[in-house]
Amino acid sequence: MQQPYNPKNENIQIFVKDKLYPRKEAKVSVFDSSVQGGDAVWEGLRVYDGKIFFLDQHLERLHASAKTLAITDIPSKEFIKDAIKQTLKANQMHTDTHIRLTLTRGEKVTSGMDPRLNQKGSCLIVLAEFKPPVFDNAKGIKLITSHIRRNSPMHLDSKIHHNNLLNNILAKIEANYCGADAGIMLDNLGFVSETNDCNIFMVKKGALLTPHADACLTGITRETTIKLAHELNISCIERNISISEFYNADEVFITGTMGELTPVFEIDGRIIENKFNSNIRELLYKAFKLLTATEGEPVE
Ligand SMILES: Cc1ncc(COP(=O)(O)O)c(C=O)c1O
Is there an atom of ligand 1 within 6 Å of 264 CB? Predict the structure, then answer.
């Protein structure tokens, strides 16, 4: 599904490094590490009803990813919170807002891979846009299986939420060519890992299953879904799951900040048939919406 252009975002203010700029002037240098090598970490957050959802969890993951990449001058959580709040206030954003938070290693003194060339400090970008959840939650989405594998910890640890997104982008391109909304990515053993931008769950005979978080991102919505399942006494098993198990599931859904808990109605031409008439995604989605309505850090 292509994101529609929203004219409300034409004149937004964007925070870059240490202050706000109008959209047309918000830029990073051609020497920035994100341009040179995708050398950056990022988070996607949502604002619901005047509250930033799971702000602390996102900042925790951003800090962990930046530490793993040995970014030496990570801005404090207080600084980042303040930058986010300044941005939301400047744009009068209180709800239906998506925040793309990026921390690059910053500008290099000359082009090159070596982080020692970064002598100008890291660069924080807070890009907040008016953007409701991206997928149609009532209709659901269609997936295909991509031939592009998720990185395994042998190659690039999926616990790092980094900007080297090319394998995910290649999977998305494949999905686009097939007329699907997203591509399922397998792990290096051939088990389902996640889609190019969301985690994935299935339901079979009342039990909830999701792949191990070995090759997929440990999504915050994924963790929340597992926690809500426990609270609702729904058993949730993390294990290796093959694509054929997904084809024959009663329910399949994906989870992520962008799209919340979105049902999947088709994978590789196989229709997902709810033979047991279960409504586990719906139960979890209701519990999730209760959280988005009540939890979060006030915008002001
Ligand atoms: C590859 C991938 N998987 C899953 C997710 C969902 O993570 P979260 O629930 O923290 O938004 C994302 C979000 O950025 C992602 O990029």
Answer: no
Structural domain contains residue 72: yes
Listed residues 130, 157, 186: the one ending a domain: 130
- The alpha-carbon radius of gyration of the chain (Å, integer) is 19
Residues 145 and 289 in one domain: yes
Pair (104, 149) in one structural domain: no
What is the CA(261)–ligand 1 centre distance, in A?
12
Q: Is the CB of 193 under 6 A from ligand 1?
A: no
- My answer on whether 36 and 160 are in the same domain is no
The verdict on the CB of residue 197 being under 6 Å from ligand 1 is yes
Q: Please tell me the total count of domains within the chain.
A: 2
Does the beta carbon of 220 sit less than 6 angstroms from any atom of ligand 1?
yes
CA quadruple 256, 259, 261, 262: dihedral, nearest 10:
-130
pLDDT tens for the chain, 300 residues long, are 556 789 999 999 999 999 999 999 999 999 999 999 999 999 999 999 999 999 999 999 999 999 999 999 999 999 999 999 999 999 999 999 999 999 999 999 999 999 999 999 999 999 999 998 888 888 899 999 999 999 999 999 999 999 999 999 999 999 999 999 999 999 999 999 999 999 999 999 999 999 999 999 999 999 999 999 999 999 999 999 999 999 999 999 999 999 899 999 999 999 999 999 999 999 999 999 999 999 999 998
Provide the whole-model pTM: 0.96
Distances from the Cα of 232 to the Cα of 135, 203, 293, angstroms = 25, 15, 18
Q: Relative to the CA of 199, which ligand 1 atom is closest?
A: 4
Ligand 1 midpoint to CA 44 (Å) = 8
> Which tokens in the block code for residue 10?
């034409």
What CATH number corresponds to the domain at position 89? 3.30.470.10
> What whole-number distance in Å separates Cα of residue 54 and Cα of residue 220?
8
**Does residue 222 have its Cβ closer than 6 Å to ligand 1?**
yes
**Residue ranges making up the domain that contains 74:** 7-130
**Cα 87 versus chain centre, distance:** 20
Ligand 1, pocket-test mutation among 65, 186, 187, 257, most atoms within 8 A of CB:
257
Give the three-state DSSP class for 101. Answer: strand
Q: Is residue 136 part of a domain?
A: no
